[in-house]
Design a protein that fits this description.
The protein has 420 residues and is α+β, with helices and mostly antiparallel strands. The protein is built from 16 helices and twelve strands. It has a domain of 289 residues: Cytochrome p450, CATH 1.10.630. The strands form four sheets. A five-stranded mixed sheet has the order 1-2-8-5-3.
Amino acid sequence: MSPPAASTPTLAPEIADPRLYLDSIPHERFAQIRAMPGLAWHPYGDRGFWAVTRHADVRAVSRNPRVFSSAIGHTNLWDLEADALEARRSLIDTDAPDHTRLRRMVAGAFTPKNIRRWEDAVREITVELLDEFLAQGGGDWVEMVAAPLPIRVILSMLGVPVADGGYLVELSNYLVEGTSDTQSLPPDAFGNTTELRLLPFNSPASHALFEYGDEMRSKRRAEPCDDLVTHLVKAEAEGGRISRHEYRHLFHLLVFAGNETTRTAISHGAMALAAHPDQWQRVVDDPGLVEPATEEIIRWATPVLHMRRTAAVDCELAGTPIAAGDKVVMWYASANRDEAAYTDPFRFDVGRGDNEHFAFGGGGPHLCLGAFLARLEVSVLLQEMAARRMFLEQRGEPVRMASNFVHGVLSVDMAPGGAP
C-alpha cells in the first residue's frame, strides 16, 4: 500500500515477512528504521502501518490508550471484517471500560503477593525437570525444560490436569503457526466448522482450545475448586460479570500467553547462557545477580515481537502526523535493542542496570498480566541451575518458528557442560 496521502514518509525495509525470522530477528533492518527521522511507513496488504521501533516511542504508544486503541481494528497486523473483530475479541483487544472489567477478573491471581505462593510449586517442577535433563545427558531443551515448566505452572493455576499439558503446548504451537504464511492444519482439524477468519490466529487450534475451555467450565460448574477456572465460572454465574464468549477468550489467552511467552524466554535464555559462559559464571559465583540476569534473559529473548494499536484520533508521534484509523505497530524486538535506551544493547550482560525492557509490553493498562509469574519461573530456574553449577552447551542450531509475532523456538539440542 502507498503511504498516507497527507504525508510523504520514508518507507521502512521489509520487517513483516514471517520468513525473515527463521534465522533470527532482522536486527539490521530495525536499526535502519530507528535511524530514520520520525516514523517509517511499512506497506502491508491493503493498508500499511507505521513502524514504531524506538524505545521512547513504544513507551509513548503503550501508555496512551485513549489515542492508540487496542479495540479499533484489534492487535493483529492484518485487518479484520466487522464480524471477525467481534468474534475474535479478547482481553488484549479491548479498551476501557471493558478491558478494566475483564482484567479485574483475573488480575488478583497474578499480583506479586499471590504469585509468591506458587514459588514452592515452581521450584518442585524445576528440580524435577533439571534432574531428568541431567540424568539423560541433555537433549531437546524446549521439550525437556522450556515447554513443560511454564505450562505445568499455568495449568495448575487454572485447575487443568497437568497430564493435558502436552496437548495444550501442541495447540499453542499451531496457534503461532497461524501467524506464518502457511499452516499445516486443514481448516476442519480438531472438528472445527468455524470459518478461520473468525478464529484467533486464523487457526482451527483455537477451536480446539475453546472446546477444551468449555469442558473445564462444565467440570467446574459441577465441581468447584480453588482455581482460576472456578473463579471465572463463578463470575459468569453471579450477575453475569463475564459472558461465555469472554470466558472462552480469557481461557484461550491464559493458556497461550501463560506458556508460550515464558517457554520462549527460557529457550533463548539457555542459548544465551551457552553462548556466554563467562556471564553465567558470574551468576554462579554471585546469587545476587539472579534478578538482573532474569531481566536480561527476558530482554534478550523478547518473546512477543510486536503489538498493534490503531489511532483513534488524528495525532502526532516522533514528529510524524498520524491520521485516525492508521495502524501503529510497536516493535518490541527493536525497542529492546535501541542504542538510545541501552548501553551496548547487543551485549548479553547479566549485571545490566539499564533494563527497562518491553518484553511485557511498554507499560500502561496492557502491561502483561503474567509478568511476575514469568520472572518467578525464570529466576527459580536460574537459582536451581546455579545450585548445581550447571553449564550448558548448545549442540546444534535451533529450529525456529516462521513468525513475526512470537520469537519462538521449536527445539534446540543442549547438553550439560563444564565451567569455562
